């Protein structure tokens, strides 16, 4: 079992000044945890069926230098769930609407799994809004039917059956060490999974695990080649949802990108290898500061 079991969500946040609120992002109530008052913003985006608690081990060190935002993405967690399929452009638009709502013109994006897919799409379509990009076991570059079925089946079973063991198994899928799926995280996710609005919305949320929809949204090598912002790719060697060649292909396609492979790490590098990841992230962010507009400059 992991030695990190004592690292509870509250212990991670206890000595951090933060706010937890609901932001109106173009009509979608969006749960947001904000910490830090730095001049540059970092926005953390979780994966499929996830929630902002995926980043509690990262907020304190980042908030010492940056203005941090961890959000529940469109249709996820305690954020609003409009009744339509959640394809990548809708996630992109929700992210940009959130940024507009909180007055962030340009942000560093940290995207895990689905969050990396959304971050990559936004960096391609709206590069002026993105200062840098981190892809943590990012999805969206391949369509692997076996992996898609595993995500779809494990999530649906955990949502449609009121058995906490199924939620626990879904969380353990993410980890190289099952002990990192702490009972606290399992409880948080189980509560979310069994909210009536989440249950009613599950087909919309899982639409990207259907082959036709996924192929319509996938990021091809030519798309990745259009990413011009500084990019860091972090990948677990034990990632159950994508092998290392998937990460190296992203690295090869994105000009100037950096790639770091972590041992003893599954699909949540920011959580399983939090100390190492925080060091990598802060070093990367420090090398690529956002351009801060000069008062009175044209444009």
Automatic annotation (TrEMBL):
<protein>
    <submittedName>
        <fullName>2-hydroxy-6-oxonona-2,4-dienedioate hydrolase</fullName>
        <ecNumber>3.7.1.14</ecNumber>
    </submittedName>
</protein>
<feature type="domain" description="AB hydrolase-1">
    <location>
        <begin position="41"/>
        <end position="272"/>
    </location>
</feature>
<dbReference type="GO" id="GO:0016787">
    <property type="term" value="F:hydrolase activity"/>
</dbReference>
<dbReference type="InterPro" id="IPR050266">
    <property type="entry name" value="AB_hydrolase_sf"/>
</dbReference>
<dbReference type="Pfam" id="PF00561">
    <property type="entry name" value="Abhydrolase_1"/>
</dbReference>
<dbReference type="GO" id="GO:0016020">
    <property type="term" value="C:membrane"/>
</dbReference>
<keyword id="KW-0378">Hydrolase</keyword>
<dbReference type="InterPro" id="IPR000073">
    <property type="entry name" value="AB_hydrolase_1"/>
</dbReference>
<dbReference type="InterPro" id="IPR029058">
    <property type="entry name" value="AB_hydrolase_fold"/>
</dbReference>
